[in-house]
Every structure is written in C-alpha cells, then in structure tokens.
Amino acid sequence: MPAPDLALVTSQIRYDLKIGRAWLAVFDSPQDTAVLEYHAPQGVRGDGAFRSERPRLVLRLAGAPARILADMDLTDEGDDGGGTNAGKAYLVVAADLSTSGGSTDLGTAFCSFQGEAARDYAGDALSSAGDVDADGYADLLIGAAENDAAGADAGKAYLVLGASLGSGGSLSLAGADIAIVGAAANDATGRSVADAGDVDGDGRDDILVGAPGNDTEGSNAGVTYLIFGVTLSAAGASLDMAAADYDYVYLGDDDDDYAGFATSGAGDVNGDGYADMLFGAYGVSSEFGRVYLWPSPGD
C-alpha cells in the first residue's frame, strides 16, 4: 500500500494572545478534503498595528475521517529570545514524528529560526520555497512583516537553503542565506510568502513575497514580488525591493486593497508548461475581497 500523503490541516492563530495550534493529518484516500472557513477580525491590537487587522482563515477536515498524526503548539510567533516579540519559526522533520500520533513539543524541533530584533514577529508567514537552487534540497521561506530594517514595519522575508541546515539546531535569521528587504515603512513585506513553482521554466522554483501595505498604487494598495530562482541563486546576502531587486511586481489597484496579503503558486492552470500564480487582496470592493489568478509571465 503506498504511503499516505501528509497535509497541514489548520494553523489557527489568535492574534490577540499570539497563541495557536497546528494539526498535521494523514489522508487515507484522495477523496479526503478540507474546508476553508472565514473568521472576521475581532478588533485590532492595542497599538493599532496592521498585523492584527487581518481576518483568520481556518481549514477544517471534511469528508472521510483522517487520522491526526501530530498536534503541535505554535506559541512563539511573539517569542522573545531575540528581543520582545522577535518571533521564531520551527522546522519539524517527518522522521521525528511518531506514526502513532500524539503531541510534539516544538522545543525538540529539528531546527528553529530566531527573529532578528524586537517586534519582528518572525514566523508570522511560512512556506516551502521549493528548490530554488536546484541542488535537490527543499528550501524555506520565513516572513517577518514588522521588521524595521528599511523603516518601521517595512518588513523582511528570509530564504533559508536546505543545504545550509546541516544538523539543525537553533539559528538566527540574521544568518539566513538571503534577506528580502521591504521597500518602505509600513509595507509589511513578508506578510505572505510562497513557492510559486517553476514560473519561468528553467528547472528552478521561484518565489512570491507579498507586501500588502505598499503604497505604490495608493495607500495600502499592496504589491506582490515574483523572484526567480536564478535571481536568488545569483544574489548576495540580501535583495532590496526599493532597488527593484525582483523580476516582476504585481500592483494592487486602489487604496486599501491590501494586495499581496495572501499569495500562492497555482500550478499549471492553462497547461502551457509554466506555473501560474494566485494573489489575494482582501480589501477590494469594501472588504468583500478578491483573488487574482495570474499566468506565468512566460505565457
């Protein structure tokens, strides 16, 4: 019998308390599905920061029952190891999970990534990056949308190459292979990060980084950056979005669209051999929101 697929079923964060839990489930058949539920914001954080204004999206299982394989507390989005609310992300490898299920203490994770500075909230967005350097190892993306390196809450996203992880342990994001630095204050770069797939057809995965607070097309209109794997492989320690160190940028249409709040690879939707992309803009049409499907620029 083939090994069942693994899926991250839900990551539910209560932003007022910075606590949450994730469930990793094993699907026993292709008919198993998950349902996306929308939970409206319940107010903003005391200081009115952008991050607490976002809605919650929760996945719940539907259809045939699935076995819960692991149950992991996610309590360190506001971890203070690198300063107050610097944040931390964890990498849990499948070999460390018991097939009999149970709880997993993230303190025993194969690797952890500590935020650089106070109030970075590193780990607020996480994704596989695919294999951007085509070395056979999966790479990682970690967002820290409130990093202040380029201005207050300009944000930053980090690329960690799989080949750099070695034997794991505790690592600082200051030592990430590449830092993707926001263009301006309040851009919230890294609010979303995603593996775009192979958009340009060169055999390397490409990445998406959202900056929903960017003001290029209007206040908080937002943008999403597409960065090719070949660009990442040739980069030094950082890429500066203010210096246009990206391959393409997708702009929100109007004030308060918050385009780039969510990003994802879409696979090859039109069958042309290139990966396509999805961008979310929850503020469009008086917060009814909109999702954009965008074909590869190679089309």
Note the overall shape.
Answer: globular
- Biggest beta sheet summary: 5 strands, mixed
Which second-level CATH architecture of the largest domain applies? 7 Propeller
Instruction: Provide the gyration radius in Å.
Output: 18 Å
Number of discrete domains: 2
In terms of DSSP E residues, the strand content is 35-45%
Topology:
Blueprint: E1 5-14, E2 19-27, E3 33-39, E4 56-62, E5 67-73, E6 88-91, E7 103-104, E8 111-114, E9 125-130, E10 139-144, E11 156-160, E12 169-172, E13 178-181, E14 192-197, E15 206-211, E16 223-227, H1 229-234, E17 238-240, E18 248-251, E19 259-267, E20 276-281, H2 284-287, E21 290-294
Parallel strand pairs: 5-7, 8-12, 13-17
Antiparallel strand pairs: 1-2, 2-5, 3-4, 6-8, 9-10, 10-11, 11-13, 14-15, 15-16, 16-18, 19-20, 20-21
Q: Which short descriptors sum up this protein?
A:
299 residues, single chain, Methylamine Dehydrogenase, Chain H, mainly beta, 21 strands, five-stranded mixed beta sheet
Describe the structure.
A hairpin with an 8-residue loop joins strand 19 (259-267) and strand 20. The protein has helices spanning 229-234, 284-287; strands spanning 5-14, 19-27, 33-39, 56-62, 67-73, 88-91, 103-104, 111-114, 125-130, 139-144, 156-160, 169-172, 178-181, 192-197, 206-211, 223-227, 238-240, 248-251, 259-267, 276-281, 290-294. The N and C termini lie far apart (39 Å). It is mainly beta and 299 residues long.
